[in-house]
Amino acid sequence: MRVVQRKENRVKFRLSFVLLFAAAAMACCFVFYMKENQPDSYYIDSGAEIRTESVCENTKKDISYFDECLFIGGKAAHGLCEYGIVSESRFAMRGEEPGTAEISDDIANIYFMPSAEELGDDVSGFAMSYCKTAPILAESGKRKVYIVSLLTTDKDKDKEKIAEVNQKLLEYAELYGFSYVDIGEMSGIQDENTSGSGSIYPGKAAYDDLADILLTHTVG
Questions:
Q1: Quick check: 177 pLDDT over 50?
Q2: Angle at 62 between CA 59 and CA 65, to 5 degrees
């Protein structure tokens, strides 16, 4: 009788072990599936306030605020450096963003500043492509990320396309819990440095206005 009970106990133990192993395997497969099928994202701040519009104007920050920021953009955004508003050490050309280990600890804010001249044919995927490193650089909420509307001038003609891209940038910011800043149009004054280049770039006054918008539209 005892021998039979022992055999039954062994069978039950083995069956329980098999079921437990099968459950663990299914759980691992499910986790792997979810990772493989989620969008091109690395971090979504679930605790962040979801915004459906641009950051509102508030108390203006001191110009030293820019020392705590990293700006990522193209030639148009680089005008902030050319006019001495932002240090070159606080700017990175789009596509040449530093890795998280290369960003100094005093950087608390990251700005992605696309411009109309960088637009390609893929309007719907522009925001995701342009800002794809934003979730990584945010480092799980360690830094605040600002997505800025397209840098445009009043000379840019394709207003409908620009509006569509800005909407996509806003939606991207909402998806990841980032902040969206609508800067409007900049005055299309051609600077002497770009004369004859065929491109219209804002002058110093316009960049001063841009800096003022960034300093008065912050979160926290």
A1: yes
A2: 105
Domain ranges of the chain: 1-38, 63-216
3-state DSSP call for residue 12? helix
Q: What is the pLDDT of residue 69?
A: 97
pLDDT tens-digit series, residues 2-33: 444 444 555 454 555 455 556 555 654 443 44
**What residues contact residue 138 under an 8 Å CB cut-off, 6+ apart?**
43, 45, 110, 144, 145, 176, 178
Q: Which CATH class is domain 63-216?
A: alpha beta
Concatenated DSSP letters for 169-184?
A: HHHHHHHHT-EEE---
pTM of this prediction exceeds 0.85: no
**What φ, ψ does residue 54 adopt, rounded to 5°?**
-65, 155
pLDDT band, residue 220 (cuts 50/70/90): confident
Helix (H) or strand (E) holding 36: helix 2-37
Residue with tokens 């192993």: 21
Closest CA to 71 of 101, 92, 47: 92
